[in-house]
User: Fold these one by one.
Assistant:
Number 1:
Amino acid sequence: MALSGADRAAVRALWRKLGGNVGIYATEALERTFCSFPATKTYFPHFDLSPGSAQVKAHGQKVADALTTAVAHLDDLPGALSALGALHAHRLRVDPAHFQLLSHCLLVTLARHYPGDLAPAMHASLHKFLSHVTSALASRYG
Amino acid sequence: MSLTKAERTIILSMWGKISTQADAIGTEALERLFASFPQTKTYFPHFELRAGSAHLRAHGAKVVAALGDAVRSLDDVAGALSRLSELHAYILRVDPVNFKVGGGGGPQGPQGPQAPPALTQALPPAQLLSHCLLVTLASHFPADLTADAHAAWDKFLSLVSCVLTEKYR
């Protein structure tokens, strides 16, 4: 389903609220992904994956920056994420299913930190946005 | 797949708190499910699905009550949910993907007509009822849903999903 005007407005508004903390939440989402879905650790053999790891924190910030870029380019996600898509498809070869596991963990993380803001309608808009990001990242696989 | 002792302890200790808000949690999880995954509404043509509807509240309460049965029988979830498993497989015929969070295989579920193409190729992961339950728990019990607790709940809900779909063939 395409992102409606209401979805875009909701995602932008939430992102403004998250402000400079997106990195913290993306890091927590990564930690939760590794904890709940240990198979995802396979992509990070070179990382220290213990809780509080500086490498995971740095990676969380990268993920956050990419998501913030995506929010700024909701009209052209495939274009904005093209380079990242190529990286994940051709070099990193991440199974696209794993992006959705990260999305799940990000939504749980945000619900913990902003319980009042993640009502079903906002949750749905965010889920849609993350699905489109996932799709843009996976579009170079074929 | 079975739960470790530590995971059972987590589930049991959180269940005490959950059961005091059981109806609200079940209802909210369903509201999230229908909002994020509108295709799941197909199983409820006979329901009024607006937020706060009596049907939603009653069904949400049933869902959480069933989870409670599973929590009280962590040694034999299959036995505890046997009747429900038959109901979902033979009578309701809910596509298994609708229960799942991640992993565990299973057929891909229905996708909306305009779903981005890549999603139809991916395995059916997060974001259906188990996901919506997790997000609901995270909203209500942010301090309790540590990464370990989150992982324990993901595993428990995957186990429940497996049991509910094991009678499909």
Number 2:
Amino acid sequence: MGSTSSEQQKNLLSKIATNHGHGEDSPYFDGWKAYDENPYHPTKNPDGVIQMGLAENQLCFDFIEDWIKRNPQASICTTEGIQEFKDTAIFQDYHGLPAFREAVAKFMGKVRGERVRFDPDRIVMGGGSTGANEMITFCLADPGDAFLIPSPYYPAFDRDLRWRTGVQLLPIICESSNDFKITKAALEMAYEKAQQANINVKGLMIINPSNPLGTILDKETLQTIVSFINQKNIHLICDEIYAATVFSQPKFISIAEIIEGDGSCNPNLIHIVYSLSKDMGFPGFRVGIIYSYNDEVVNCARKMSSFGLVSTQTQHLIASMLSDDEFIGKFIIENSNRLATRYKNIRRELDKVSIGCLKSNAGLFCWMDLRKLLKEPTLQEEMVLWGKIIKEVKLNFSPGSSFHCYEPGWFRVCFANMDDETMEIALKRLQKFVKRSKEKRCGSKEEILQKQSSAKHLIS
Amino acid sequence: MAIAIDIEIEKPSVGLSRVAVSDTHGEDSPYFEGWKVYDENPYDEVRNPLGVIQMGLAENQVSFDLIEEYLEQHPEASATWGNGTSSFKENALFQDYHGLKTFRKAMASFMEQIRGERAKFDPDRIVLTAGATAANELLTFILANPGDALLVPTPYYPGFDRDLRWRTGVKIIPVHCNSSNDFQVTPQALEEAYNQALAMNIKVRGLLITNPSNPLGTLIQRSVLEEILEFVTRKNIHLVSDEIYSGSVFSSSEFTSIAEILESQKYRNAERVHIVYSLSKDLGLPGFRVGMIYSYNDQVVTTARRMSSFSLVSSQTQNFLASMLSDTKFTKNYIKINRQRLRKRYEMIIEGLRKAGIECLKGNGGLFCWMNLSPFLEKPTREGELGLWNSILHEVKLNISPGSSCYCSEPGWFRVCFANMSEQTLEVALKRIHDFMEKRKTDQRNHLSY
């Protein structure tokens, strides 16, 4: 037997394995590579690239670590927690530890200002919200079916919702002219387009608060959406993983609040995806949640969660932490305040160089408007600008096109994954760049005027 | 703005996916029926001594004290989290799908120790997944398209029906093994299964073996592994070797991992081989969801790593285990003692069953034995087996797993777990079996006397 050629080898793997559904060939990842090769460090590499493409919440770790120190029993590996080690380690029931489900349900209610209650028995685990989003897709749609999704949207949805499921994503175009709001007309248009293309729409996916916009959906929009999905008899999946990052008015309205008061909505259509990766800052712990108002979906998803259960060691820690009412109450407020401060700071510094952002009140990022820095309002120019921002300014921003934004010039800029000093440096770099760009443009305007006047001189 | 919607009393069922409404999750099989009966009336030495004893759960509870002892000597310092090697913050933020390097190194070393250092493992070929459940499904997604098939020797772990088929759309074609040669896989059986697939126009993409075997508790002999490797190479298909019971082998020298064979062949044809491992059985930590794929194929490693995003191992758990499994003094001692205790349990149950007039397949590893009740069936059929199973479940109050739920082609075999309980409970279970068999003999004698 000779060695197999790589072509032969390729044929040995599945279509899913060899297509690009993993999404890592997108330019979105080029910025990461630039950062990985030259990461900023305050002393070791002060000229390095500052990571602003990672939506992580690092603002409250001191608060949390303090709790960890004061609560050694929350870990089953400490002297105080070891008596729970065995029972926790052998517990593999996909219902999850009851204390975990109860604590998560309580937390979700608190984050929504106690305006709704969540039933612990409807909580199903997923491997992070990445796993949860894929799982709910497997439950609701067949290969070839489609979900509608407002754009711009989180790039990894292309992988999470489509790769192994074979489901399609059809964008609902949102425009800056009305602050990227989701309109009834846009919903209908997207649905109609799918009908004409003979694509079976099974659901609508919304992310609220929005990634990358950082905005929340108002009551009217939510009601429009609920009416729409009821009328079309399609599912509504609400990814609310940034729920606790709302840092200023107006207050967050969860889909849970809308349907509780609305008897005309079919609850079997409503499903919420949640996670602790953003609100708490625990992406490593892989705590993803599906909360469905549909019993059949709860049952099915629970069985499916076997593929992405949360480590019981982590369930135990989270159960302990989230059931500390006093701590959580303080955390939610502190988290919100620190995010608000960061946001205000950024807006103030950007104002100084006349750079605007979409007005937002949530998330770990802002949606920055750099359209006037583009030579032309095209995708190519957005890529050129982005290249400059990474290579010259050494900031890893995420270009709007990677979020399927149809208008060039918008960038998502994360602000919660660094300390104050780094943030200051990043903003200074950006301010310098903007000023330089203006000078260049003004400079060239002067050159043109000079040329024109000398030309006139020549002619006359 | 409210829109009036006609709400009928009988709503048309809102469509879920085909995957959602299928029963490929497999929970309607007797394997799970027995669990339900146990759940409703679980044995407890003090509070419910007449309850159902769970012998259908392949869990390893015999060596927890060793882990607890390690923890007592190396408690996680609450002030610094993880013995100061990384802060809570770093740990909580770590979501890189490569996994913690220290953890992968520790796993590679652990796997080498289990195999008596007869094979080497490269930490960079390890892809971490949330349990072997996720690993097996993930590999299937990578190696086969919907409608394709994997060959699996029978009897096999019932969970494979779900793990390999449910969301992947891939089929399982059984490779029939029987008691005439102690249920070993033969080249003829492999060819037969392969040809059966051909006849049905189904593309076979790989063969999945479990070694040590669940439910048999036996090891695949070296010569058979070589035949298997030759078969998959000839057919140009993959080989997945699920070795999750490798640390539960009673005598280390008897176990041959596919890794050893590949090493001895200088990794010729290795790119078609993938190993699945987990800490659920050997370390008794199923709740922690620690599984992995070890592949000799670079493309599979890269793709599996990307796909593992859907089922990563909690960084908190990686951190803890990296510490514990890097302690070679602990791991060497654990592996040795765990083996000894499992062997002792095995000998205890075999002896107890023999006294009751019941023979088992000779096993050399795992957390269960493969019990032969075929001489005691009313009819040598699946119905006969399920009838006897029902009696054992409801009268003897033991939840054991009928061979038919493992797709065994011969009726009358049962998998009986022995490591998920105390020695005292095992004695109670053996006494119940003994009494049951005695009563049967008496009944038969009385019956015959008429």
Number 3:
Amino acid sequence: EEEFEQIDFLKDRHVRFFQRSLQVLPERYSSLETTRLTIVFFALSGLDVLDALHVIDKDNMIEWIYSLQVLPTEDESNMQRCGFRGSSHIGLPYSSKGPGMAHPYDSGHIAMTYTGLASLLLLGDDLSRVNKRACLTGLKALQLEDGSFYAVPEGSENDMRFIYCAACICYMLDDWSGMDIHKAIEYIRRSMSYDNGIGQGAGLESHGGSTFCAVASLRLMGRLEETLSERELDRIRRWCIMRQQTGFHGRPNKPVDTCYSFWVGATLELLDVFQYTNYEKNRNYILSTQDRLVGGFAKWPDSHPDPLHAYFGLCGLSLLGEPELMKVHPALNVTQRAFQHLQQLQQAWRDNVSSCT
Amino acid sequence: FEWSDLEPVPQDDGPNPVVKIAYSEKFTDVFDYFRALLKNDEKSERAFTLTAEAIELNAANYTVWHYRRVLLQALEKDLRQEMRYITAIIEEQPKNYQVWHHRRMVVEWLSDPSEELEFIADILSQDAKNYHAWQHRQWVIQEYKLWDSELEFVERLLEEDVRNNSAWNQRHFVISHTTGYSDPAILDREVQYCLCQIRKAPHNESVWNYLKGILQDRGLSSHPGLLERVLELKETQCSPYLLAFLVDSYEDALETNNTRATLNQAQEVCALLAQVKDTIRREYWLFLGRSLESKYGPTAAPQSDAASSDAADQQELS
């Protein structure tokens, strides 16, 4: 007796999955402590894609996110460490308004600043409590000579992921003084591989994640067409489109994984060729990784779901035009609705500036 | 160790915590005391010991690792011992970013990369495509100029698995940073190596990507006799990658000599890919066919048969 794969999309299960992610997680998730804000982003943006943000208390969420902002101290001696934290793991007393509290080891993390801002945005916040100058000073302090970024001022690894985080931060704050665009672009170019994909850095193996980070960053900077020739763009298109096996994998000869339906799919969309992929096979793969009991998606079928794969599985389906899902902005990785809210905010910021001068 | 002088510092998520993790008492204790030490910036043996406990509970906490590094220096700890420690941790958790960064810092402080290639080889023997491992390997090799035996290492890995894309990438990394590909003898050696691997395992995107990669900037149709070899392979060792290489070779030829004949050959292969050999990308190959037609079609030199070449001669004469 043949077992038919079930390919129906269980919207309500996924809403509940994200709701549960936002509550209490068991101790086996302890490795996520310093990155809890990214989990919040996956859950909130996931609910936004599901058009289900109404199930959460937005105001409470906004307060909690603001409590993670590393604000300048009275004497502003920590400006280069400002941004957002991933969680309260340092142990400062809860505070959702300034001034900053001096602590020898308290600093922001580039991915938390990015996901913190994106989360506030999609919750409808106007970012008025964000200290933009501090965030941008903190961001600038993270950029290296070679154009890439550290995650934290104390030092960390540096690669394409953090260039993407930096580009999103500057894009959302509408202020590119937080980075040297030219150096970042040079790093991106140096990371192009002989096989026409893009690696995490020069010489490194091309990868679907870093290819997305590079192309999306260029798009956010408004420099995609001027940085890459039409021939180079065609070559990247070819590398990306070859990643489809059923769903997508991240590197040649590796197994497929649900999240690449977004990383590679969004890159193809940014390059105007997602329309030439095989929608049915992609959709069928993503749905085969759906957890029918608990909700969410996993990287592979019959594996445990997690917030990251749940979120990117949904985004992958959104790119495919899945009926019950909101459209996702392929470069900024938030819903088009959140993106439009950002555009309105930025228009108001510009209006304010011109009315003051 | 005595802890009673320290006031533990709890985490404070305020009235409405989000994504709260439910820690056991032991976990909470370790980190409450860690936070207390951190706040006072205490530089002591007990602090150093506690970082190991905290790492065991959560090796992804980058603040603990940073504090441990501060202590390693302040207390002038034995870095050789730290190498042994970090070796064990990476073996247990080879996909964690913090542990690899920590190892890199210790290697830099010691200015001693002598254990690295062997260590990374061991990690790769467990997962031959671990991106962190390859990244660390490239850093060590470039920083300390350890190029000498790397091509040999790559060849060994490719013998084990000719489809290991990371190994092919490493091959390119080594050669481009040592001999380079400008020497025709080297380039030909690499082309022959690729053709040999293709005969053994034709369905392998990595080898075709490498072959195309080392030739594309010189022009795919510039390597003498290659097109013929590929057309031979098409009969017995065909693959979507071979056919894509063929399309790209034809396109390269069209750039310098745009003829209807070559364009038709390219179109034929696109059609074969779309209809038979790579149907998952059907729409893309059709799109590529249309693009080629619109780019080269209008100005393609006409088909070379008797009738049309007479007509062309007539035109030229008048």
